[in-house]
Amino acid sequence: MAKEWKNRTAVNGKITVIDYKFDRNGGKMKIDRRLNHAYKNADTVYFDDNSKYIFFSDIHRGDDSISDEFTRNQNLFLHALNYYYKEGYEYIEVGDGDELWEYKNFSVIRLAHSDVFTVIKKFYDEGRFIMLYGNHNIYLKSKRFIKENYYQYYDEYNQIRVDLYRGLKPKEAIILKHKETKQKIFVLHGHQGDIINDQLWFFSMLLLRYFWRYLHIVGFGNPTSPARNLYKRHKVEKVYDRWIEKNKMMLICGHTHRPKFPKANDLPYFNTGCCIRTRGLNGIEIVNGKIQMVDWRIAANEDGDLRVHRTVVRGPVPLENYDFKKNPYSTHYNN
Q: Which of 22, 220, 249, 258 has the lowest tally of Cβ within 10 angstroms?
């Protein structure tokens, strides 16, 4: 039986209560239990072959300082968002959108990247935005924190409070379900069950905010993060593969910062990658009943002019190819 603990954390000078669980037997919950819990509590979002989705994860919007890794891709990300808005996509942010571990004041993040939040608001106002939380913005589990920070903001130029995402309800996970085929796609950030970034997230946050943040400015990576640790990254992916095979369901996540698109006959594990790579950003699109991975980057043409390029690097592949009812897959894992 799992024992619930409540962690009271000071955010923006106020106390935010975050619930998380430890297992009595061994001190942690097994990963499959965390995934099952997220799945059981996930909202179902229905779609069809006319639906269009863009999935971005691990944007890590910061304060525009030297430690803000998103800054270098802010304009590229903004261009991509405008493209998807004009093309009629729905935007699903798959966790770690805002870097609330390193920067405790969301108002600083919003001010630093106000243009980005303005475009996201256009999606939100039209019912085309779903926000999932990850470990780096786990504060979004708190309704009080959301209401105080995301519903409105103070416009310093006009000296009035302005609506941002009033009524926003971030989720841990969602299930996309096709209206006709009933095929399901489980979408979540991917930190669930990673003990350092899940059950012990508060201690990891303190280490990052007051220690690793300053070391990574000069080139040192945080070894507790799967994005910086190859062994942890492969371990997380392997465990998620087991869950997919056991539950016979396609899965889209982020967290590891490593883009993944399954090869033929591989289990349907998809990873969005991240938006803080030095050479650009990755995302996953679902359009016309097909899924594909895209790469956005700025590159020079033959004349030396810099241009934004969107490239489909994997796919498109029909979603039905990843439907276990039609493709049962072989058993890869027996442990």
A: 220
